[in-house]
Amino acid sequence: MPELPASVRVSLWVTHAWASGSPLEDALVRAMPDVDHVDGDLARLATWHGFGERALLVALPAPGDLLGMPGASGEARGAAAAAGECVYVPGIGGMLVPTISTYGSGTLVGTRVDWTAYDADPVPRHRVEALEASQLERHLREQLMVATEAIDSAGGQPFGGTAARELADAALGGQWGLPSGLPGRAARVIALAGTVGRIADVALTAPDGALTASESGRRTALLRGLQRNADHALADATNAACAVIAGWRPA
Asked: Could you tell me the superkingdom of the organism this chain comes from (predicted)?
């Protein structure tokens, strides 16, 4: 099953650690087990919690699409858009943006993540409390159906057999290495959105079998739209789960 963005995993594991009182260091290790070296401004997490923050939220922006991000400087928003992800706290405001890179050579290549802190505006808690996993799931499934039909009509092969199997696995639910006790509906949306996003990623780089340049361009635009919709649903479902973990709303 494809992995989730680092910021999604860190958001859930850190919020879980804050709620349960478990060590923050353990949460970060469990959130990023595939990363060989982590560095940067992660001390901000303890500082934020000390000031009363109970939920670490996530945004998955892209250049030209900053939906879900807190207000921040152009530098901060640009860094998050370039990274495609960030985590933030809603109460006092503040944001961490990861930079993912590799080091070494040959067979000895490692992955590192460096987190950079930026100032950000507070976000009203009621915006997060209003997120309903059931609505998110219904909306994403509708978007997937519409996109699949449109891509099919554009020509080429929309999704291959492997992608279809991954989508079926997501519908059945998977663990994805996430904390236990996540609200079930939100966990399903996280799995579905993560899988749909991964399918779109793969489809954008795979031969499309389209007959003309026009068909290929339309297919690419549709896949990118589906990719963004999946990212929006993934961020919202993650934040909905964090709201429950933090005790802001019932499961």
From this structure: Bacteria
Please give the model's pTM, rounded to 2 decimal places. Answer: 0.91
Tell me the C-alpha distance between 152 and 132, whole Å. Answer: 30
Q: What is the residue whose two structure tokens read 């640009």?
A: 78
Quick check: 88 and 96 in contact, CB under 8 A?
yes
Q: Residue 104: phi, psi to the nearest 5?
A: 90, -170
CA distance 67 to 57: 13
Q: Enumerate residues 6+ apart whose C-beta is below 8 A from 4.
A: 176, 178, 190, 194, 234
CA–CA separation, 62 and 239 (whole Å): 18
- φ, ψ of residue 59 to 5 degrees: the values are -135, 145
Six token digits for residue 59: 């945004």
Which structure tokens are listed for 191? 């799995």
Domain ranges for the chain, please list them.
6-123, 133-245
pLDDT tens-digit series, residues 35-60: 999 999 999 999 999 999 999 999 99
Q: Which of 140, 32, 41 is nearest to 88 (CA)?
A: 41
Indicate the burial class of 250 (C-beta count within 10 angstroms; 0-12, 13-18, 19 or more). exposed
Report yes or no: 42 and 13 within 8 Å, Cβ to Cβ.
no
The predicted-structure confidence for 148-162, as pLDDT tens digits, reads as follows 888 888 766 666 556
Question: Tokens in use for 195?
Answer: 């899988």
- Calculate Rg over the CA atoms of the chain: 18
Side chain identity at 68, as an amino acid letter? G
Of 242, 107, 102, the closest CA to residue 181 belongs to: 242
For tokens 């993934």, name the residue: 234
DSSP alpha helix (H) spans, the chain: 6-20, 24-31, 43-50, 74-83, 125-129, 133-154, 161-172, 184-205, 213-245
